[in-house]
Amino acid sequence: MSKHSAAIARFSDFLQQQGLKLTTEREALVREIFSIHYHFEADELLFKMKQNNVKISRATVYRTLELLVKSGLVRRVHLGEDHYHYEHVSGNSHHDHLICTTCGTVIEFHDEELERRQREICERKKFTPTFHNLQILGLCDACRRKGEQPDAPDRVKMIGQGAMNLRK
Amino acid sequence: MSKHSAAIARFSDFLQQQGLKLTTEREALVREIFSIHYHFEADELLFKMKQNNVKISRATVYRTLELLVKSGLVRRVHLGEDHYHYEHVSGNSHHDHLICTTCGTVIEFHDEELERRQREICERKKFTPTFHNLQILGLCDACRRKGEQPDAPDRVKMIGQGAMNLRK
DNA sequence: GCGCAACTGAGACTCAGTCTCAATTAAGCG
DNA sequence: CGCTTAATTGAGACTGAGTCTCAGTTGCGC
């Protein structure tokens, strides 16, 4: 049960600083998040917790995600779809995404030269960056091989495990 | 009335190629879009057309925007909010965005070195890019000057003219 | 001009995310 | 260890962007 205790301790500290409380729901959510090693959606989280018989409400999931983002333990990322995805932050930290528009595969990468160049651009524009978000959409190697796209997808599909809606 | 006729001609060609029709609604929408020289939202478009006494439905606006994106005349951009923004494409073409998280100002920029480096990264990952989207969030010069952020905004606010909801 | 596939609008629907409010709980304090 | 109270929770109503349906309309190739 002491898995992910480092993350929980960090979150606890953050909450205390803000005069907020570490509740069982919040703790369970952090555990769940840190056991997912991929991008996830809020509803996916809710679903998984239901599966594990952990009781938590939609509202609490969203509220806690917001706190986790503020605390820096979780990052909100755009993956080309029209709603948010999240990922937990653990040591290694920042990266950007290559997203295959055919199969939905997400490839992470980090490139120091790219980062440096961005900083230069900001400096020149007198802009103080705090965060950035880069997605490159296109075809992954596998999809390119299996024929020049069969039917021109105009929208990214099937990212993550899909929505699995189960409102209540 | 022949303003923006180049764009309309291009769209007409695209439609014809696809066996689709150029209707009065679609033409009016293209006119409206090409008279906005900034990022806009779908609802904003609907609102402006109502103001100008052009009758068009929400469904048609969305349907036409999709076609315009496919035709390459309009681009869908993420501006850090939870819904889409659009911008028309006109000659000069591709650029990325610096977005001030305090006042919502959007600064456009284009940097060839950044583009080149991205192409290199894709090559190394055997990824065939078709499009990318880079937003750098932070503080613009003006906001940085007027004090180190008064109350830590955790979310981008007030981008564009705001939503001005008027469903019907 | 005709025919018919493409198109349109009204409004129902979906789905992610937010808000409200009464009931509950963490945690500092005596 | 119980009290107090501010923070938190869950149920479900609500919001707002975007999609879908379907009956009626229209562009356009013949």
Give an overview in words.
2 copies of one chain form a homodimer. In chain A, the strands form 2 sheets. In chain A, strands 4-3-5 form a 3-stranded mixed β-sheet. Chain A has a two-stranded antiparallel ribbon with strand order 1-2. Helix content of chain A is 39%, strand content 17%. Chain A has 6 helices and 5 strands; from the N terminus they run ααααββββαβα. In chain A, a hairpin with a 5-residue loop joins β3 (96-100) and β4 (106-109). The first copy, chain A, has helices spanning 5-17, 24-34, 42-51, 58-71, 112-124, 141-145, and strands at 74-77, 85-88, 96-100, 106-109, 128-139. The relative contact order of chain A is 0.15. The model of chain A is unreliable at 149-166 (pLDDT under 50). Chain A binds chain B through residues 66, 69-70, 78, 80, 82-84, 98, 100-101, 107, 109, 111, 113-114, 117-118, 121-122, 125-141, 144, 154, and chain B through 66, 69-70, 78, 80, 82-84, 98, 100-101, 107, 109, 111, 113-114, 117-118, 121-122, 125-141, 144, 154. Chain A binds a DNA duplex (30 and 30 nucleotides) through α2 and α4.
Strand content of chain A: 15-25%
Topology pattern of chain A, helix = H, strand = E: HHHHEEEEHEH
The largest sheet of chain A is: 3 strands, mixed
Task: Report the span from N to C terminus of chain A.
Answer: 27 Å
The mean pLDDT of chain A is 84
Radius of gyration of chain A: 18 Å
Helix content range of the residues of chain A, please? 25-40%
Helix segment count of chain A?
6
Q: Give the structural class of chain A.
A: alpha+beta
Largest interface: A-B, 39 and 39 residues
Low-confidence sequence ranges of chain A:
149-166
- Judging from the principal axes of the Cα atoms, what is the shape of chain A? globular
What's the arrangement of strands in the largest beta sheet of chain A? Answer: 4-3-5
Oligomer: homodimer
Total E-strand runs of chain A: 5
